Amino acid sequence: LTSPGEKQYYALTLIERLFTELPNDWHVGLLYDITCQIQRSMVKWGFLKEYFPCMAFAVSVFHAFRHQWECQLRGHPRKIEGFRLTDGEGCGHFWSNIKRLIPSLRISGPNRRRLVLDPQFHHMKKDTLRNLALNIKKKRVRAKKAMREAKAILKELAIDEDVLRQEWKDQVQTQTAKLDRQDKNKADKALERILSLREERDDLHLCMCMLWETRWNTLKDNLETLMCIDEDLSSAQQALESTTKVLHAAEKALGLSGAEAKARLRSLKGNELLRYQMNARVLKNRICSKVIAQRFERGRLEKAYR
């Protein structure tokens, strides 16, 4: 390392080197302090795109709680299937074991540092291999204990596991959704969307009327045609209900509750009060989302000192 700070090209180089030594069908879990940034860079710029499908990303436990709540939802190893109790702090454990050398090596030259650290590396490697079975046994005991505690909590809650998993997926989807931004044309865009939804609803109404007319004029003996028409009617009915629901929600967001307001919808384009109202709602939603995220971020810290 020739400069301070987290340089992504160091991590990318190590990842590339690792994959050259592994079989092509292996799937690798990557834990790193800033894995979220590395993953984003790989997606945005196409770094190591030939290896990207074979990787799962998570943030090392020691740094996970320093990230934003959205990042914790997507990158915390305890919240991602496959990582289980892995902490990703192997290097941290190693440097913790040789921290006694820091005072003396801080004032040493590079050659002396290498002379001192190399034997330490080899000794730690041999010591780790010698105690490998014991460490695996300890981790297994700890994993079984965590499993028993988790099952006891689930049994006490008396909630089906599938329900909890679905609730968790919904929470992740909701709290990681992209937030709206303020826009001077936001009200006009919302009005155009409502007008478009109304046209779509009217087209679906017309389509259903035509299908009903066709069905009425079709002979009863032609069962195959009747079945096709019924399927089209069912699909059109579902689409109509969905569009109507979205339309009502969009009109409610604009405060168009009365028939008079809906009738003068086109005249509301460029309305300054409506623009301020829409932007105020966006600002309110962003503040609420940030407060909720911060509350989740500080939850574990508050439990620690209470």
UniProtKB/TrEMBL annotation:
- What are the record keywords, sorted? Coiled coil
Positions the record marks as coiled coil are 129-185
**One Pfam family linked to the record:** KDZ
InterPro entries recorded for this chain?
KDZ
Domain of life of the organism in this record? Eukaryota
| Protein name in UniProt | CxC1-like cysteine cluster associated with KDZ transposases domain-containing protein
Which organism was this protein described from? Sphaerobolus stellatus (strain SS14)
